[in-house]
C-alpha cells in the first residue's frame, strides 16, 4: 500500500536517495521512498541475493538492463541495480574521494557551498556511515601486492591511503565499504538505522513515471505499483534515480528540450535543454596477462585461506595532459568467482574525459529503455583516447619491470598487435568500455548557464519543490570512483533540506 501523500517523496532508493531519506527521517520529517525494484528488507534478511551481498565479486541481480543498444556494432553494458540500495548493490566497494581541484572548480563556477572544504565533513560522515575500512598492505592478495610493490618504478609511490585530496600520485591499499565480507550498500548503512521510525515508509516495486507540476511547482508523482497507476502527493519531491533515470523522469514530466519532447508528443511543461545532456563516464581499458605458475600457486593458496576479493589496491597518476593533479587510475583485478577461467588483469581509466553524450527517451513508457550514448572517446581533439593509451603504456612499463615480469607473464589483451601507438589507439576506438561511473545529466549550474538543470540548492531551475540528489547533478566527474561522491550528493541535499525546514 502506497501512502497518498508525504512531506518528502524520494524517487529512488539508491545510493543518493537512501542517504536523503534516512537523514530526513532521522530529523523527524515525514518521508516516503519509492523504489522501482524490490525492497529486500534489512541487512541479514534471506531475501537479499547472494551476489549483491558478497563483497568478493560484482553484483548482477536485478539489473536495469541498460546498454549501448545500437550505438556501436557491439553492446556495452551499463549495469545499474534495480533494487533497494541502487548501484551501491553492484559496486566494487572501492571508496575514493578524488582531488581538491574537482570540487573547488565547482565552487569557482559560482556554485556556493560545493567546494572541497564545504564537502569534506560530508565525505567523512559518509565514510563513517558506510563502515569504510582501509586495507593494510599485509592484507593484499599476491596479485594485488605484486603491483603495489612495483608501482614506484613508474612514479606511483606506495602510500597508505588514496583519499588525501591534496595528493597527486601514489599506489595504495583501497578503502572499502566491506564488513565481514558483506558489501555495505546504502540500504544497510543508512536506511536500516531508520526503518523503525514511524515517519519513514519504504515502498518497493514502485516505478515513478513522472512528476506532477502545477503552477510551476512539483506537487506529486505518478507511480506504477504492482499493476496499478497511483498518484502520490508530496511537499517536496527529490529525484534520486541516477544519471540514467533522473533525466528520463524529468523528460516524461515535460521538463527538458522541446525538440526532444515534441516527437513523443509530451507536452512541454518547462524548457530546460540541459536535461539528459552532459552524460559522461570515465573510459576504461582492462588489460590482461597470461600469469605464471608462481602467481597461480600463490593466488590459489590465498583463495584457499579465505578472503581473496577481486579488488584491493589502486594507483593514481597524471598523464601528460594533467598538470594540476592526476587523471589516471590503475586497478589490479583478479576475479575469484571465475577461477576456472583465470584472468590476470589490471584496468586503467581516464578520469577527466572531455567527451560528452546524452540520455534521451525512446518512448513515454516508463519501462522502456532510454537511448544512452556516452560517445566515449569522441572529443574532437582526441585527448581522451591519448590519455587512456598513456595509461596502457604505463601498465606495460610496469609489467616489464623485474619485480613483475616473471609473475605476470606475457600480455594477452590488448596484446602484441597493439604495441604501435596508432594500433593501440585504433583498438581503443574500436572497443570502448566504461568505468561504471555515469554522471552529469542534470548538472549543477547557475541561472545564467543555459545547460544547467539544478541550482546550487539542487533545485530544478524554474520548478519549485523539485530537487535532485544523485550523480546526475555532478557538472564534471571527479577524479574518483563515484560511489562516495554520490553518497556526498545525498548528504549535501539532505543537509540543505534540513536547514531550510529548521
Automatic annotation (TrEMBL):
Gene3D superfamilies according to UniProt: 3.30.410.40, FAD/NAD(P)-binding domain (3.50.50.60)
Pfam families attached to this UniProt entry: GMC_oxred_C, GMC_oxred_N
Required cofactor names: FAD
Taxonomic superkingdom: Bacteria
InterPro entries documented for this protein: FAD/NAD-bd_sf, GMC_OxRdtase, GMC_OxRdtase_N, GMC_OxRtase_C
Keyword tags: FAD, Flavoprotein
Glucose-methanol-choline oxidoreductase N-terminal domain mapped to chain residues: 242-256
Signal peptide start and end residues: none
Family affiliation: Belongs to the GMC oxidoreductase family.
Protein name: GMC family oxidoreductase
Amino acid at each position: 500500500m502506497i501512502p497518498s501523500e508525504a512531506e518528502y517523496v524520494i524517487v529512488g532508493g539508491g545510493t543518493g536517495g537512501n542517504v536523503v531519506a534516512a537523514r530526513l527521517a532521522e530529523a523527524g520529517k515525514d518521508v516516503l521512498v519509492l523504489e522501482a525494484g524490490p525492497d529486500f528488507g534489512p541487512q541479514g534478511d534471506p531475501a537479499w541475493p547472494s551476489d549483491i551481498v558478497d563483497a568478493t565479486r560484482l553484483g548482477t541481480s536485478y539489473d536495469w538492463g541498460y546498454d549501448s543498444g545500437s550505438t556501436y556494432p557491439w553492446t556495452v553494458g551499463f549495469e545499474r541495480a534495480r533494487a533497494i540500495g541502487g548501484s551501491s548493490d553492484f559496486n566494487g566497494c572501492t571508496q575514493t574521494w578524488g582531488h581538491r581541484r574537482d570540487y573547488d572548480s565547482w565552487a569557482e563556477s559560482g556554485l556556493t557551498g560545493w567546494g572541497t572544504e564545504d564537502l569534506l565533513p560530508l565525505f567523512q560522515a559518509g565514510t563513517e556511515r558506510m563502515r569504510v575500512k582501509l586495507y593494510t598492505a599485509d592484507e593484499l592478495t599476491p596479485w594485488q601486492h605484486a603491483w603495489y610493490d612495483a608501482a614506484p618504478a613508474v612514479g606511483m609511490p606506495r602510500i597508505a591511503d588514496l583519499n588525501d585530496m591534496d595528493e597527486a600520485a601514489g599506489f595504495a591499499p583501497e578503502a572499502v565499504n566491506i564488513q565481514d565480507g558483506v558489501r555495505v550498500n546504502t540500504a544497510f548503512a543508512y536506511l536500516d538505522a531508520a526503518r523503525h521510525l514511524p515517519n519513514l515508509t519504504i515502498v518497493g516495486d514502485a516505478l515513478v513515471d513522472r512528476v506532477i507540476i502545477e503552477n510551476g511547482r512539483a506537487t506529486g508523482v505518478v507511480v506504477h505499483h504492482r499493476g496499478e497507476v497511483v498518484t502520490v502527493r508530496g511537499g517536496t519531491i527529490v529525484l534520486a534515480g541516477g544519471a540514467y533515470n533522473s533525466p528520463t523522469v524529468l523528460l516524461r514530466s515535460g521538463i527538458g528540450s522541446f525538440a526532444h519532447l515534441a516527437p513523443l508528443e509530451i507536452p512541454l511543461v518547462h524548457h530546460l535543454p540541459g536535461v539528459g545532456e552532459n552524460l559522461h563516464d570515465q573510459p576504461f581499458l582492462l588489460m590482461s596477462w597470461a600469469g605464471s605458475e608462481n602467481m597461480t600457486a600463490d593466488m590459489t593458496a590465498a583463495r584457499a585461506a579465505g578472503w581473496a576479493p577481486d579488488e584491493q589496491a589502486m594507483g593514481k597518476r597524471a598523464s601528460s595532459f594533467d598538470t594540476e593533479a592526476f587523471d589516471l587510475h590503475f586497478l589490479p583485478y583478479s576475479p575469484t568467482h571465475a577461477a576456472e577461467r583465470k584472468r590476470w588483469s589490471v584496468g586503467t581509466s581516464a578520469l577527466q574525459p572531455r567527451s560528452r553524450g546524452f540520455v534521451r527517451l525512446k518512448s513515454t513508457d516508463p519501462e522502456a529503455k532510454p537511448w544512452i550514448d556516452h560517445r566515449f572517446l569522441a572529443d574532437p581533439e582526441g585527448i581522451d583516447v591519448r590519455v587512456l593509451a598513456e595509461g596502457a603504456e604505463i601498465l606495460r612499463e610496469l609489467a616489464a619491470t623485474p619485480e613483475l615480469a616473471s609473475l605476470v607473464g606475457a600480455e594477452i589483451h590488448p596484446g602484441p598487435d597493439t604495441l604501435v601507438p596508432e594500433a593501440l589507439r585504433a583498438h581503443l576506438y574500436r572497443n570502448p568500455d566504461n568505468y561504471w561511473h555515469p554522471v552529469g545529466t542534470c548538472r549543477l549550474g547557475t541561472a545564467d548557464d543555459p545547460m544547467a538543470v539544478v541550482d546550487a540548492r539542487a533545485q530544478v531551475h524554474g520548478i519549485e519543490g523539485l530537487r535532485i540528489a544523485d550523480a546526475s547533478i555532478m557538472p564534471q566527474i571527479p577524479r574518483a570512483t563515484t560511489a562516495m561522491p554520490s553518497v556526498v550528493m545525498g548528504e549535501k541535499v539532505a543537509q540543505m533540506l534540513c536547514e531550510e525546514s529548521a
